[in-house]
Amino acid sequence: MLTYPSINPTIVTLGPLQIRWYGVMYILGFLASYLLVKYQIRKKRLDIDIKVVNDLFLFLIIGLIIGARLGYAIFYNLPLYISHPLKLFSIWEGGMSFHGGLIGIILSGLIYARTRKTDFWRLADLVAVTVPIGLGLGRLGNFINAELYGRVTTVPWGMVFPS
């Protein structure tokens, strides 16, 4: 069995501000997705203005963060957030949900397409191919945080995490 390498989840601390690997993975995921969408538009010579992509990504990033946080609160710790609703804003304490993030992205994409009177499915096709990049980077962030281990295993390439 492999031993977890115990990576510090904080890259650097600047006074009260901590730059953490998990947040960096989010930023890298957003950036990679954005650049890949721009590349697709250029490569395929699609008739989509870059301003549309910029605005769309603003909506999607906000939708993802709000959805992921609300999803975590609703699916995993609702009593805490009902009794302390301001804790919803304490994202530095952790707690993001894939399911909530997915719902947030879909809703924000629908809102964007509807308000801009553009085809949601055309935009969704562009963004969908970039999803594995964001998910993969997110899982790397989870690994560094030593969370979401997966199932117990006895295979030689399995990982022993700290208890």
Please trace the helix and strand order, writing H or E for each element. EEEHHHHHHE
Q: Give average pLDDT, whole number.
A: 94
The tally of domains stands at 1
Number of strands: 4
Explained architecture:
The structure is a single chain. The chain has 163 residues and is mainly α. The protein has one domain. Helix content is 60%, strand content 8%. It has helices spanning 21-43, 50-76, 78-83, 98-116, 120-128, 131-144, and strands at 2-3, 10-14, 17-20, 159-160. The strands form two sheets. The protein has a two-stranded parallel ribbon with strand order 1-4. A two-stranded antiparallel ribbon has the order 2-3. A hairpin with a 2-residue loop joins strand 2 (10-14) and strand 3. Helix 1 (21-43) runs antiparallel to helix 2 (50-76), helix 1 packs antiparallel against helix 6 and helix 2 runs antiparallel to helix 4. The radius of gyration is 18 Å and the shape is globular. It starts with a strand and ends with a strand.
Chart the SSEs and their pairings.
Blueprint: E1 2-3, E2 10-14, E3 17-20, H1 21-43, H2 50-76, H3 78-83, H4 98-116, H5 120-128, H6 131-144, E4 159-160
Parallel strand pairs: 1-4
Antiparallel strand pairs: 2-3
Helix pairs in contact: 1-2, 1-6, 2-4
